[in-house]
Structures are given as structure tokens and as C-alpha cells.
Amino acid sequence: MSRRWRFEPDFIEQRFSWRGEKKATHAVHAAVDEVLRAPGDVQREGALRLIERLWPAIQQVNRAPGHLDEAMERGLRALVELLAPASEAELERLWAALERDWGGVLAPVAASWGALCGDREAAARWADRLKRKVQWAWAEDPTDRCPAAVPCLSAMEASGRRDALLAMLSVGAPDAWAVRRFGARAVRARDGAEAAVAYAEASTPADDFEARERAAFCEATLLDAGRPDEAYARFALAATHGHTHLDTWRALHEKYPDRDGAALLEDLIATTPGDEGKWFATAHRLERFDRALELAGQSPADPKVLLRAARDHAEDRPDFALECALLALRWLASGRLYKATDDAIDEAYARATALGAALDRGADVRARVDALVSEAREPKVRRRLGG
């Protein structure tokens, strides 16, 4: 008897509405987790069922770049790693899913087709099977999406047909990075770093994720060629991205450990004008306390992060802690970006007044709090502190 998967009721055709991104994101996380935690003898079937059902279920969702695409990207990479190498029967099921996937959500599966084939012989068979479909599609309209293109190129790459791959890309192929990344790798192996970077830069990314991927390819190519200064100057900032701003700084510092961490931070800040406050935690991590306060004063910073800093430094840096508490109250009062809760408002006020009293600055703090309350756009702040 076949296993019943808890995720299946959530992954039926048109299950999620246009505004269902949040629900779909949670469902993807839960489904992938269920598959990865399942007993080994049923994991592969669970992975296949989820891949087959993904596009039909989320096809109506408004997929503005965000959490859903990230969840699907990460989840599918994990499922591909579980499945590779796939049997012929499994490859047939995956190919049928790719042909139905007109939204492109299974791109990680397509890009890993060579790995899924498992060996050169299987990859060569699939390359031969798909090649004519791709050439015909590109001859008709190179801008039209061809589901066979990426799997075919991935299979050609896995089968070692570097020259044939480049020859195919030279005739009628679109300039999309999703297609030309295979050529970029082939050019790097054949002609070296300079030619590979030029080839990559002649491609067109479809979205921010592909733009980062292209930059990361160019950066890695130059780093491998022993050209770190050029890699940093041209591609590092565009290639580096983390879940948080602090994660982004850490990733950049890991790649360039010889560069000054504070200088890396300033370079990153320059890439996000209007979001200076989001770099507060990074400046704080670097113990650049004055710079951290300056950043948090320029644009909204997360009150939770500010209050944590106020708690952590109440003893050793009370002046810094006081300013963090007041900034937390300021951004809670502004009604911008961050939800004001009664607990957060009360803590910010209590910490500011307590620190003000300890520093013999009680009157100054009271005046600053009154000014924040009088200008507050957040009704909760006026209601709780206005009296």
C-alpha cells in the first residue's frame, strides 16, 4: 500500500490563491521537511510526488520575488540532491513535470539534469533526445521559453560535450543567463577566466537571483585565477547575499578575510541607499558603536534589535544603551515598517527612563520622549505614553 503524505492535500491544482504566497511558503517548507524526515525507502517517491505537484498547486500565486521563490529554490535543491542519480523511470516522471511547468518553478530540477542522469552515458542519451526540440524552438523564436533547453544543456555538460554545447549556443540561442551559464562554464574550462567573464557579462539575467548567480560566477572565476582585487571591485558586492544584512557582511568577510571589516561594511551600506538602519546590527557586531547609532538614526532599524542592544549594554555602555532605547521608541512611534506592540513600547520607555535616571539625564530623556510622542504616527505610542 502506498504511503499517504501529509503534504498532498495542500498540493492539488490551483490550491493557493493569488494572495496565497505566505500559505504556500509555509506549505513548501513543511512538505520538504516531511520528505527529508521520511524513512529512506519512501523518500524518493515523496520527492517525486512533491515535484510533480508543485507547479499545479502554486500556479495562481502572485510570485513577486520573495519568500516563496526562496523556499522553492532551497527545497528543490534538497530534493534534487536526494534523487540524484535518478533511474530512467524517475527521469521520465521529472521530465513530464518539467514539460508542464510553464511558470519555471522547477528551474533547479532542470539545471541539475546532468547530475540527475548520474553518468555520462545517460546524460548523452538525454542530450540527444532533447537537442532537436531545443534547436527547433530556438529557430522558431529564441525568446520563447523552451522547457527542454536547460535540461539539454545540463546533460550535454555532464556528458563532456563542451565543444558541441558551445556550438549549439552559438546558433540562435537566447542571451538568457539561465541558458548561457552552461556556455560560460565551458568557455572558462576551454579559454580561461577573461573569456569566461566576458561571455557571462554578455548574458541577461531574468531576475535578481540570476543577477547574483552571474556575478558569483564571475567573482569565483577571477578568484580562482588569482585576481582577488578585481573580483572584489567588479563583482563581490553584487554576488554576496545573506538572509540578514549581518549574514551578508559575514559572507563577504569570509571570502575576503584580508580586507578591513569596517571597510567592507561601508561598501555594503553604499549598495542599499535608504536602508542604512538595517546595517545597525553589523556595525554593532564590529563594535563601531557611534557608527551603529548613526545608521539607526538615518533610516528605520528593527526595534527588537535596538532593544536587545540596549539590554546588552546597560552596564558597560549606558550612553549607547540609552540611545538604542530612544531609537527603538522613535521607530515604534513612526509607524513605519515595524509593528508596534505594547510590550515593545513599554520596554523602550522603561529602559530609556531608567538609563536616563542612572546617567542623571532624566529631564533630557523625558523631553525627548515627549517630543517623540507628540510627533508619533503610531496610535499605540500616543495612547500608552501620551498621558
Model description:
The protein is mainly alpha-helical and 387 residues long. The chain has helices at residues 21-37, 40-58, 67-83, 88-100, 107-111, 113-117, 120-140, 149-158, 162-169, 177-191, 193-201, 208-224, 228-239, 245-255, 261-270, 280-285, 289-298, 303-312, 318-334, 342-358, 362-374, 379-385. Among the domains are: 1-106; 300-385, no CATH class. Helix 2 packs parallel to helix 4, helix 8 (149-158) runs parallel beside helix 10 (177-191) and helix 10 packs antiparallel against helix 11 (193-201).
Summarize the structure in short:
Among the domains are: 1-106; 300-385, no CATH class. The chain is built from 22 helices and no strands. The chain has helices at residues 21-37, 40-58, 67-83, 88-100, 107-111, 113-117, 120-140, 149-158, 162-169, 177-191, 193-201, 208-224, 228-239, 245-255, 261-270, 280-285, 289-298, 303-312, 318-334, 342-358, 362-374, 379-385.
